[in-house]
Amino acid sequence: MPLIPQSDEDYLEDRAFDYELKKVENEVYLILRQWPFPEAYTPRAADVLIRILPGYPLSPLDMFWTSPDVKLVNGAWPQAADVHENHAGQVWQRWSRHTQEWRAGIDNLRTFITAIKMEINRGL
């Protein structure tokens, strides 16, 4: 049984993401390695964790996590990103960003990763 839908895995491969999938109890962790961050942040690259909960893709993806910590260049935490959580034996910085509307059967990893890119590019 695949950990994520084949269409999501095809998307990750087509976009040449360096990624890892981990099964942890009833969740799947997608780790995107060395995600590039714009000039507003330091460091300029970090791993990004997406937790895929049971029920996906009908149920929404929510929030994302980074490691190492990512801060604004002025040393401040990004908005709603000052909490840390342990996932799969590693401490991750939580970015509390919530899906406003999840369109079951339409939205997927492609739309969620696009939302993450847009949020990070805001530089807040």
Topology readout:
Blueprint: H1 6-14, E1 19-24, E2 27-36, E3 41-42, E4 45-52, E5 64-67, E6 71-72, E7 83-87, E8 90-95, H2 109-121
H/E element sequence:
HEEEEEEEEH
Shape: globular
**Helix content range of the residues, please?**
10-25%
Low-confidence parts: none
Outline the biggest β-sheet. Answer: 6 strands, antiparallel
User: Which range does the strand content fall in?
Assistant: 25-35%
**End-to-end gap:** 39 Å
What is the averaged pLDDT score? 94
Kindly name the structural category: alpha+beta
Count up the domains: 1
Query: How many DSSP H or I helices?
Result: 2
As a whole number of angstroms, the C-alpha radius of gyration is 14 Å
Report the count of strand segments.
Answer: 8
Strand order of the largest sheet: 1-2-4-5-8-7
Characterise this structure.
- With 124 residues, the chain is of the alpha+beta class.
- It has one domain.
- The chain has 2 helices and 8 strands, in the order αββββββββα.
- The protein has helices at 6-14, 109-121; strands at residues 19-24, 27-36, 41-42, 45-52, 64-67, 71-72, 83-87, 90-95.
- The strands form 2 sheets. It has a 6-stranded antiparallel sheet, with no helix packed on it. Strands 3-6 form a two-stranded antiparallel sheet.
- The mean pLDDT is 94.
Short description:
By secondary structure, the chain is α+β, with helices and mostly antiparallel strands. The protein has helices spanning 6-14, 109-121; strands spanning 19-24, 27-36, 41-42, 45-52, 64-67, 71-72, 83-87, 90-95.
